Amino acid sequence: MTVVLDGGLATELEARGHDLSGELWSARLLADDPAAIVAAHRAFFRAGATVATTASYQASLAGFAELGLDRDEAVRLLELSVALAREARVTGDELVAASIGPYGATLADGSEYRGRYRLTVAELAAFHRPRAEILAAAGPDLLACETVPDVDEAEAMLLAIEGLDVPAWLSYTVDGESTRAGQPLTEAFAVARGNDQIVAVGVNCCDPRDVAAAAEIAREASGKPVIAYPNSGETWDARARGWTGEPRFSPDLVRDWLAAGVAYVGGCCRVSPDDIAALAAAVRPGAGSPRG
């Protein structure tokens, strides 16, 4: 069965008039306008998505602290990200994936598209573990370890979620057949082989044209089902804090992705509910559950 994921949460929030220019991006609205997050999630569910990814991608205890929030309030907002996605469900059967973004996302300088932060695997795992524990305790159906730029951070994320008793997916942002840090994808996807907590591996926030080749490598290297949710094909300019280039996301590409072994498919940045509706129409019948 093909599982339909949501698209770009921030894209939908911006389309609804919200200013996400701050360093916390969508996570700022957890404190300022939680109803807006519910509405954005619901738009994707109504478009045919069966999984919502929470607004916790760029959230961190340190980031909330910089806003003057104490730890208790930061924990509450991380937990709220899961509750809001659950509240947005339309049929009641949709699933919630708690987003655990890379360390670079919390720097708000585009580092997640470079990786190699000069931190050890142990240091990265120590950074990710508290947030992972909080999100797992909030009761999501899945953990989304996403937009991972290099193998070191993937290994750290797997350590950080170990023992949390919530299934997870591991998704890299890639450039062709390499991670953003330049490592071969065969090496990158192999880190999940034999890890029973990981239910899928794949790519996200990459050029749609890179999906098919990466999916084939992911399937062979990991032995896992494959997940793919690329961005529109535009490029993020961290200095200008904007997207450049022309969009290339199209449901016409989905046939190639499915043939390459993609089982969970959706979109990332700059992918709207209308795009997900078209994608869902292209893969149905067959939308289902990651646990199905």
UniProtKB/TrEMBL annotation:
Cited InterPro entries: BHMT-like (IPR017226), HCY_dom (IPR003726), HCY_dom_sf (IPR036589), Hcy_S-methyltransferase (IPR051486)
SUPFAM superfamilies named among the record's database cross-references: Homocysteine S-methyltransferase
GO molecular function: S-adenosylmethionine-homocysteine S-methyltransferase activity; zinc ion binding
GO terms under biological process: methionine biosynthetic process; methylation; S-methylmethionine cycle
Protein name (database record): Homocysteine S-methyltransferase
Residues annotated to bind Zn(2+): C205, C268, C269
Region forming the signal peptide: none
Source organism (scientific name): Amycolatopsis thermoflava
PANTHER family: HOMOCYSTEINE S-METHYLTRANSFERASE-LIKE ISOFORM 1, ZGC:172121
Keywords, comma-separated and alphabetical: Metal-binding, Methyltransferase, Transferase, Zinc
Cofactor note: Binds 1 zinc ion per subunit.
Domain Hcy-binding: 1-283
Organism superkingdom: Bacteria
Matching Pfam families: S-methyl_trans
Necessary cofactors: Zn(2+)
